[in-house]
Amino acid sequence: MSKAFVKESDAEFEDEDEVPDPSPKGVKNYITPRGFKALQDELKYLRRDERPKVVEIVSWAAGNGDRSENGDYIYGKKRLREIDRRMRFLLKRLEAAEIVEPTQQPNKDKVFFGATVTYADEEDNERTVRIVGVDEADLERGEVSWISPVARALLKAEVGDVVDVRTPRGPQQVEVVKIVYEDR
């Protein structure tokens, strides 16, 4: 089908080379073993559970006649494209992943990938973050990407160091209080 007759939102990532990559160009895709397993589990779920169910619905809907006004068929085909796009993305991320075991860090006195860092801001408010890969960052769980401004400021710092963190309110100084390398 000509792209002239496809809605822009449907054609946005039709080619697998167009799948967006969350990491900056030329930067390695570091990931913890737990994060790698989570991506593998999601891929396995999509491949073995989600996609076969949607294929079944689409084939049933296709047998019902006129496909142009068949909501199950139209939605199912759209959902299949989304699943396939996500699977391509996960495959690319898993292929590019470089697994880093935080507990194997030889220099545990400094902040590196996988460290759980407690720091205090200028008002003595303490906050704990764990530095993880781009694909596994989750601020609600206190996990920040190693390329985030907070993590970049903390990298290579030691307990007692004061570093400048870029925040939306401007630069802020924080002091590293504690560094722990654990397998969470």
Describe it for me?
This protein is α/β, with parallel strands linked by helices and 184 residues long. It has two domains: 27-99, Transcription elongation factor, GreA/GreB, N-terminal domain (Helix Hairpins); 102-181, Chitinase A, domain 3, CATH 3.10.50.30. It is 36% helix and 22% strand. It contains four helices and seven strands, in the order H-E-H-H-E-E-E-E-H-E-E. It has helices at residues 8-11, 33-62, 71-96, 149-154, and strands spanning 29-31, 97-99, 115-120, 126-132, 143-145, 162-167, 170-181. The strands form two sheets. The protein has a five-stranded mixed sheet. A hairpin with a 2-residue loop joins strand 6 and strand 7 (170-181). The radius of gyration is 22 Å and the shape is elongated. Mean pLDDT is 85; it is low at 1-17.
Q: Output the structural class.
A: alpha/beta
- The SSE string, one letter per element, is HEHHEEEEHEE
Overall average pLDDT: 85
Report the biggest beta sheet as strand number plus sense, adding barrel if it closes: 5 strands, mixed
Structure annotation, total helices: 4
- Radius of gyration (Å): 22 Å
Count of domain modules: 2
Features:
36% helix, alpha/beta, Helix Hairpins, 2 domains, two-stranded parallel ribbon, Chitinase A, domain 3, single chain, 184 residues, elongated
Topology overview:
Layout: H1 8-11, E1 29-31, H2 33-62, H3 71-96, E2 97-99, E3 115-120, E4 126-132, E5 143-145, H4 149-154, E6 162-167, E7 170-181
Parallel strand pairs: 1-2, 4-5
Antiparallel strand pairs: 3-4, 3-7, 6-7
Helix pairs in contact: 2-3
